[in-house]
Structures are given as structure tokens and as C-alpha cells.
Amino acid sequence: MKVLKFGGTSVGNPHAIEQVCDIIKNNNLQDRCAIIVSAVGNTTDMLVKCGQLAYHKNEKYRYFIEEIEIQHLNIIRALFPSQSNFISSIKKRLNFLEIFCDSIFHVMELSKRSLDRIMSLGELISSYLFYEKIKEYGFKTIWKDSQELIVTDERYGCAQVDIIKSYKKIQYFFSIESAPYAILPGFIASSPRKEVTTLGRGGSDYSAAIIAAALKAEVLEIWTDVSGIMTADPRIVLQAFPIENLFYEEAIELSNLGAKVIYPPTLHPVIEKQIPILVKNTFSPSEKGTRINNAPCFKHSVTGISVKKNMTMITLKGIGMINILNYLKRLFTVLSREKIQVLFFSTSEHSILLGIEESEVMQIKNSINNEFSQEIDKKYLFPVLVEQDLSIITVIGDKTKNMHRTSARMFITLSKNNIYIRDLAYNVSKKNMSAVIKNSDFKKALNVLHETFFEIPPKPINLFVAGIGKVGRKLLEHISIQKTYLIKELQIQVMGLCNSKTMYFEEQGIDVKNWKKNLESGNRMRLHRFIEKIHLMNMHNSIFIDATDSQDVARTYDKLFVKGIGVITCNKIACSSSYKDYKNLKKIARYFKVPFFLETNVGAGLPIISTLNDLLNSGDKIHLIEAVLSGSINFIFNHFKSGRTFSETVREAQKRGYTEPDPRIDLSGIDVMRKILILVRECGDSMELSQIRQKPFLPEECVKANNVESFYEKLSQYENYFGRLREEAKNKGKKLRFMAKYEKGNANVELKSIGPEHPFYQLEGDDNIILYKTQRYYEQPLIIKGAGAGAEVTASGILSDIIKASR
Length: 807
Ligand SMILES: NC(=O)C1=CN([C@@H]2O[C@H](COP(=O)(O)OP(=O)(O)OC[C@H]3O[C@@H](n4cnc5c(N)ncnc54)[C@H](OP(=O)(O)O)[C@@H]3O)[C@@H](O)[C@H]2O)C=CC1
Ligand SMILES: N[C@@H](CC=O)C(=O)O
Description:
Blueprint: E1 2-6, H1 14-26, E2 33-37, H2 43-55, H3 61-79, H4 87-107, H5 112-136, E3 141-143, H6 163-176, E4 181-185, E5 188-190, E6 196-198, H7 203-214, E7 219-224, E8 245-246, H8 248-256, H9 268-272, E9 277-281, E10 290-292, E11 302-317, H10 327-337, E12 344-348, E13 351-357, H11 361-371, H12 373-377, E14 385-397, H13 404-416, E15 421-426, E16 432-438, H14 442-454, E17 459-466, H15 470-486, E18 490-498, E19 502-505, H16 515-520, E20 523-524, H17 527-537, E21 542-546, H18 551-554, H19 557-561, E22 566-569, H20 573-576, H21 579-591, E23 596-597, H22 608-617, E24 622-628, H23 631-639, H24 646-655, H25 664-667, H26 670-682, E25 693-695, H27 700-703, H28 708-717, H29 719-731, E26 735-743, E27 746-754, E28 767-774, E29 782-787, H30 791-805
Parallel strand pairs: 1-2, 1-7, 2-4, 3-4, 7-9, 8-10, 17-18, 17-21, 21-22, 22-23, 25-27
Antiparallel strand pairs: 5-6, 9-10, 11-13, 11-14, 12-13, 14-16, 15-16, 18-19, 19-20, 24-26, 24-28, 26-27, 28-29
Helix pairs in contact: 2-3, 2-4, 2-5, 3-4, 4-5, 6-7, 10-11, 13-14, 15-30, 23-24
Bound molecules: NADPH dihydro-nicotinamide-adenine-dinucleotide phosphate and ligand LTNE7NMQ.
């Protein structure tokens, strides 16, 4: 014998009901089968509403009755297009509902008993309707009213089942009835006086469990609209997956602490009889679902993670607590009197911390203060302290495994992600570990813990991109193109975008292919709002990408670090401003253990900074750095040939995306000074920009031009000067290279003419070259060479920083 229970969504519409019939048809049942059915969709809620409205003299109850009727008749018409001879029996029940509500309306009385009568109609109708459909499939089926089988006391609304009497009735019925399928309404039962009663929350599960236990069924199948009990709430953790096997105890823990698929107290009868429970998805029946029993199986060290939101912590404390006789007994007497469920408990010699539902706080606070009023007056204790807006996150450990490593990982993961932990506690069995955290952190906490305990790639990375200019745009393009490749390792999502005018966010991730349209539809850009929103979204694995040239944006990094958000930047301003600020940023990022990558600050996509760090971290010493670090200037001098003006060549470099947004930053030497300064600082030297010696080659008048256009005008007035520079070098068989050098604590940048003997002579296009002469690479210095400017290579450098940061 199998017992199958189908919940409200499984019979919520004609398609779902047909799906359920297919499940039964495909089940290949050799055995007999009891099928317990919930009310259609949200019928029970609507029935309750009818009763309450009628009681409050609100005629709108008629509207809800009509709604219920329409909903059911629509299902009937869709399922039974040609014949509907049983409609009259359903109409009879709905007529009864109307008459019953009319009387409530007139007498203005609604007892729990009456409400049970009203609520019972949902299951009575749905099970009957389902019975008629299943018969059409040619199955030999009977319909049986559960009121005749399950006996309860008279606690209407949540009646207590007389297990012995009910088991006898169920066993007797199934012994005399031979039809292989029996359809029964869930949730309802009857009192000894034959009045309808209902079984409270999870009532249909309870009906199914009682029938399964009475018949010693081989399995109880709970069919619902999710694919089993998940490792975490799938609405919050996209990577959550169904748990294949659970021990009864673990299922109880998971459900008590937030997983809503089953309501274990109602499953007590089957757990007692050790009957396996299978949770399956009606809409995806081929999926395995979750099997709950006590059979050994392979599992992760953690079974699942659950969260209880909107909790309140109440603390009773005082140095006199230890001297108060029976204080725990008194406290728990108050809690039990007030029917308060404690979901978190931790204690020390002079304090007790209790986690309860937010809604119960005022009532319990006053009661505890009253109970201990004398001790509070004598200052042995403080009045109850209340902390709100908290969540309890619990990692449920595999009951067969040791939890000490798991709890350490939980603590490290939360603190590494900058999640404030108010308190931590093991449960009694030492198999579950709970942390009290802020409500605002619960999504992030759930995601990072899920990642730590369950996830295999792809790892989710949430990006916020500031600056959608040449580089930013290319980056979005790379992300969209590489998505299929990256998906194996990373699931990169762009959650926020901005340029200097607008900003745009999407909690589910932005469609980067349509970034332009999205950004245009965004809100007016306010930098502090952009940063605030990133904080508010509070997403795990968040990375801020700075693809702007803005000083204001560069000044926000520390505000991101302290919230656990990493920064990847191609904007050189942050690391080339004062040494104090540079050092501070590095320190804060290290302290908060967040990624801070700036590879593209020097040499665009070339691995210049990472190579330098690798050398230094492995104990090498830098003797000399010599480099051509300006892709644009190199391009300009390589292309400034006779027949071409200097200003035309600069325009060409800008058009190709090699220059800074303002090309004077390149030609004045500042860009290269910033780059060499960053390398010097990475070497550990506390240099300032002003300490770099430079020989400018750009006439002062051009530097001081009011804007970029007038700068170009000024440049054209100096064509002869630039032509002379070129010819002088050419006549000596040399080439012009704008070089940077760092040696013995000094750094300088200057335009040099170099001959073919120099390793930098053969430097094509917009290439950069860097030479590291180190203790280990002394005779033959280490050289890195390649394209050193342009949106393409810079964006790919940022992408590789993103990949590094995700590790
Ligand atoms: N090009 C290259 O080869 C390399 C560039 N870099 C660096 O990359 C950065 C970007 O360069 P590039 O893409 O060429 O420059 P662009 O001028 O093309 O783009 C800059 C972007 O930043 C935005 N922006 C400017 N100020 C702000 C602000 N306060 N808030 C929000 N957004 C802002 C601009 O907005 P709007 O569109 O509204 O003006 C624009 O979208 C620069 O710092 C540059 O030094 C680094 C290595 C190589
Ligand atoms: N403007 C820069 C681009 C990279 O930083 C350059 O010309 O090298």
C-alpha cells in the first residue's frame, strides 16, 4: 500500500489535475493506493475570508463565494467538457456555503466550529472532483469522506486525533474495500458527535500520515510544487538544489527552521512507524525528489541551511542573576504560560538570550519584567533588553558527521564576508549551528554559506560597473561573449551600471547586451546613491569595477571595502594620489579580506603588476625598472611619419582608444608618471608623484589649453616643433621613446631618442615594454612586452582580474 498526498497547487487548475492523473497512471501501481487531496489552490483562504466577512456584516463574502464557484466550475468545464452530471453535487455544497454564510451574516456569530464546517468544503469539493477525473482514466476507484475514518476531539480549528480509534476505522475500511484507488479529502475529520473538525496547519499532510501509519504503507509520497526539500530557499539562493536523502531528524530541523515544504509535526505518525517519506514535484515528476528515512547514504557534511527572519532577541541579564533561585524555571514558566516558542537560546552565568518571533515581543517583555520586578527593583537584574530586526541562520549538519569543522567554517565564512554575528549557538545534539545576524544580512549570509558548504562551480559573481565608456563597454561585451565559457567556473552577473549621467540596477542581473537601453532608462546618477544602493543590495561576492577616470569615484573604494565589496580598477587615480591614501586603501582591503586588483593601471592587459608582485613575494629584489608605459605616446611616435601632422596622429590615437579621455594626461607625461609611481609603490617605496623627475616634451601652452578641442588647436601651432623632434632622431638613426625609469630610489620619465642597440628600439604600434632587472634576473632582465593600451586589452585585463578575485 502506498499513500500519496497532493497539495493545493497540484490540484490548482485543470492542467495540474491532469498532471496528477498522469502521475498516478504512470506509477505502474501493482499495489493499492490511498490518495489524499488538498483544497484547490487558495480555496481554504477564500473560505475563511467568506466566514470572516459575513461575521463582520460585510456583504463582500458573496463575492468570494462567487469566486470559489467560478474557480471550481472553470476547472470542471475544462476537465469534463461533455459530461458534468456531478456538478449538482458540487453546487449543493456551494449552496450550503452560501446559506451558512448568510446565517453568520444575520446572527453575527462565527465559532471555530462553524469555521471548520466552512473550511471543510474545500477538500470535500476538490477530492470529489479529482475522484470523478480519475474514474475517467478507467481506474477502479472509490471516494471516501475522511470524516468517517479520522476521529478527533472537539478542539475545533486544530483538533487532536484519537489515533487508536482512527487507525481501527482506517484499517477496517481498507480491509473491506477492494478498489485499488481510494480518494480522500485531507485536512478534515470528525468529532465523536460527528461534527466536522479540521487538523490545523499542515492538516492534509497529517491526514496522509495517519492513513499511511494505520496501513503501515510502504511509502508516503508528498507531491508538491517544488522538487523536494532544498539545501536552502531557492528564491534566495539560486544555486540551491534538492536534497536527495534526509534523516527524519534533519527534515524536522530544516522544516522547523524555515523550510516550508513539509510540516514535520504532522508527519509524526509515519516517522514513528519508520515509513519512508518521498517529497516529489508534481510538475517535474521525473526528478528524484527528497527521500526521508533513516537509511544510511552519502551526504555533504551539511544537509541544508535555513533562515528564520524577523526574529527578536530578548536578553535578561544582571550580575545578581546567579543568586536568584530557580530563575530559569521562572523564566520558562512565563514563556510556557504565554505560549512563546523559543527558537534560539544561549546562556552565561549572568545573562540569558532568547530568540523569539517579532510579533510576540511586547507581550513577553512585559510578562518577564513583571515576573522579575522585585529583582529588577533591587538592581539584581536589568529590565528585559530587546533587539529587533534579526535573523537566525542555521546550518543543519549531517547527523552522522562531526560538526566542529563545519562550525569553524560557518564562523569564518560569515566574518570574512563582513556579516555581523550577534551570537552563535549549537543545538543540543551538536549537529546544528545557529548564528544570529542582522535581517539586512540574511540573503548574503545564506548565499555565502551555501557556497561554502555545497557549491561546485559556477561561482556567482555580482558586478557593479561604474563607467561605460570605451573600456566599460568592451568589458560588458567580453562578459556577454564569454558567458558560455565562463559559466563552467563563474556565473558573472552585472547588477548595477552607471556613467556620469545615469545609473541602473537590477536585482536579478542586467541583460548586458541591452546595457545602453537599460542605462538610459535608469535614474539620475548620484555617486553616493550608487554606493548606497550597492550596500543596500548587500550581495555576496560583490565586486565594484571602476572604469571611469574620475577622482570622486576613486575616493569611494574604502566605503566599499568596509562592506566587504571588492574593487577592480583601471582608473589610476586612487593608487597614484597621496602615498598615505594608497597605503590606507591597501590596508583596509587587506583587513576586510576583499579583493583589490589594479593590474590594468599599468600596461592595460599586460601582467606587469602581478609579475612584479610574484617576484617580490618570492623574495626577489628589484634593482631597476625601465619601461615604455604609454601605449598612446608609443603609437604616436611610431605613426608620426613625414606627410602626417602630429595633431592628426594624436587624434588617431584617441580615436583608437589608446589615450586617456583627455589626451593631455598622456602627452604631458602624467599618465606615465602615475604608472611608474604605482610600480614604485608596489615595490614598497613610499614615493609621491611630485618626487618623480620629468622632462616634459609637450609645450606648456598646449597643456594649459582650456579644453580638449583647443588643445588640438594649440598642438597644430607646434607642428614644426614636433617635426623637428622627429627629424633630429631620424637623422641619428634613432627612434623616439617616452621612457620611465626607477633605480636606487629615484624615478624619472622623459622622451628619449634611442638607437637600434637598445632593447626598446623595435617597439611596434601601441606596445608597452617593461624590463625588470632583479637580483635573480640580473644578467638577463625579465622583459614583458605587448599591446599596452586600448579598450580591448584593458577590458580583458579587467576580466582576468575578476576571475582572479573570484578565487
Ligand atoms: N583606454 C585605455 O587603453 C586604458 C584606459 N585605462 C583607464 O580606463 C578608464 C576609462 O577609460 P576610457 O573608457 O577610455 O574612458 P571614457 O572616457 O571612454 O569612459 C569613461 C567613463 O567613465 C564615466 N564617468 C566619468 N566620471 C564619472 C563619474 N563621476 N561617475 C560615473 N561615471 C563617470 C563616463 O561617463 P559619461 O559617458 O557619462 O561621460 C564614461 O562612461 C580611465 O581611467 C583610463 O585611465 C586604463 C588602462 C588602459
Ligand atoms: N592612455 C594610456 C592607456 C593605458 O593606461 C596609454 O596611452 O598607455
